[in-house]
């Protein structure tokens, strides 16, 4: 009685086996054909093609290594700055000791005065500023925002390879964009999320923070950093629009690092401006909140309309771009706390600001191996909705801080 059932099940598995074998044969056929064709050619052609294949294999090995190794990735990277040890806001000049009277100066030997008194001297975090003090003896507080932005860009393009402009990333998987596959694109999305925060911050530094009430002459270093940050993320050494050699994307982004650090060094010597006013902080927070609002909308749209569980190949891109944004803004908001120390203390915002920083850090705890985009009432996890929840919490904290500053 069971024989027909056994025969049917056996037939089904036979057909499945034949289908798998046929699929493997179709996939292997081009390689088998190429192998036979290759063996029939002369040694010169074989040598040339062999070298090309080895080069391609080496490029793929480097590409895979670069996408999977995240050098110096650390959600707690903010702690190394010790911003809480700072004693002055960005651009704030250290007090100079009293100078001797002219009468005393005529009878006493010349005295070399320190750059700051003992009770107002620079903290550990401000030590580079004192070392770089101008010949006049003046020293000013460095910008933590510029420092963190430079370090994040250095992390993106110097300590790691910039994935989005690599030739194999541009070629995709047999012509299909890596962003439309579940493979090898998470780091690229994460880096682009970080750079979105850098681009927005560079614009704020050039247009507002690095100028006196937005009316003084724009700082040359900040203007250069802003321009380089706007450069597209995908340019390789050769392009087609227009055709010809190009300067690759990482070269432009490395200039951001140099410009921001040059600005910070000049600021430490009181040769540049950082306008740490409450209205500038309000505007910067508004820009960040707007960016996170856009990200939240993108996450919601993907979560609601493409809830395909493990099979949503774009869910990982959305997740890691958002993660990169929060990773960067965590450092930049902590740096803003240090740069606008006087404003935040005067408005009694320290506790609220610390709570906001804690929200950023909580969001960075989410690091799943596989991004799942299921419906919110489904059986499996929905990582996009979870990330969207944290993005909205952070944005809510930013808006609350703005409201207090505007009173």
TrEMBL record:
Keywords, sorted A to Z: Membrane, Transmembrane, Transmembrane helix
Transmembrane segments: 12-32, 44-65
Keyword Membrane among record annotations: yes
Keyword Membrane: yes
Biological source species: Mesorhizobium australicum
Protein name: DUF2333 domain-containing protein
């Amino acid at each position: 009685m069971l024989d027909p059932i056994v025969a049917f099940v056996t037939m089904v598995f036979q057909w499945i086996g034949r289908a798998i074998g046929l699929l493997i044969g179709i996939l292997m056929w081009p390689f088998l054909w190429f192998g036979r064709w290759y063996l029939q050619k002369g040694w010169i052609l074989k040598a040339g093609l062999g070298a090309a294949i080895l080069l391609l294999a080496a490029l793929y090995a480097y590409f895979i290594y670069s996408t999977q190794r995240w050098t110096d990735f650390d959600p707690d990277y903010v702690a190394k700055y010790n911003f809480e040890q700072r004693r002055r806001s960005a651009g704030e000049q250290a007090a100079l000791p009293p100078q001797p009277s002219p009468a005393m100066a005529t009878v006493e030997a010349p005295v070399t005065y320190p750059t700051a008194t003992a009770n107002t001297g620079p903290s550990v975090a401000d030590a580079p500023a004192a070392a770089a003090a101008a010949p006049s003896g003046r020293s000013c507080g460095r910008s933590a925002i510029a420092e963190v932005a430079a370090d994040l860009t250095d992390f993106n393009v110097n300590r790691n390879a910039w994935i989005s402009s690599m030739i194999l990333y541009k070629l995709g998987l047999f012509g299909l964009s890596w962003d439309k596959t579940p493979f090898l694109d998470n780091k690229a999305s994460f880096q682009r999320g970080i750079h979105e925060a850098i681009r927005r911050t560079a614009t704020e530094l050039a247009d507002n923070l690095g100028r006196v009430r937005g009316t003084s002459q724009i700082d040359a270093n900040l203007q250069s950093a802003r321009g380089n940050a706007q450069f597209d993320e995908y340019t390789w050494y050769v392009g087609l629009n227009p055709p010809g050699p190009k300067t690759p994307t990482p070269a432009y982004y490395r200039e951001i690092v140099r410009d921001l650090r040059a600005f910070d060094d000049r600021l430490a010597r009181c040769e540049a401006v950082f306008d740490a006013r409450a209205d500038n902080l309000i505007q910067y927070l508004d820009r960040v909140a707007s960016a996170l609002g856009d990200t939240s909308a993108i996450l919601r749209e993907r979560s609601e309309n493409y809830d395909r569980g493990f099979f949503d190949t774009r869910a990982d891109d959305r997740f890691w771009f958002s993660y990169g944004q929060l990773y960067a803004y965590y450092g930049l908001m902590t740096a803003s706390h240090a740069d606008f120390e006087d404003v935040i203390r005067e408005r009694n915002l320290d506790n609220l600001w610390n709570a906001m920083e804690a929200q950023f850090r909580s969001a960075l705890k989410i690091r799943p191996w596989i991004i799942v985009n299921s419906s919110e009432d489904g059986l499996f996890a929905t990582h996009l909705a979870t990330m969207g929840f944290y993005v909205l919490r952070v944005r809510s904290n930013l808006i609350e801080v703005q409201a207090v500053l505007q009173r």
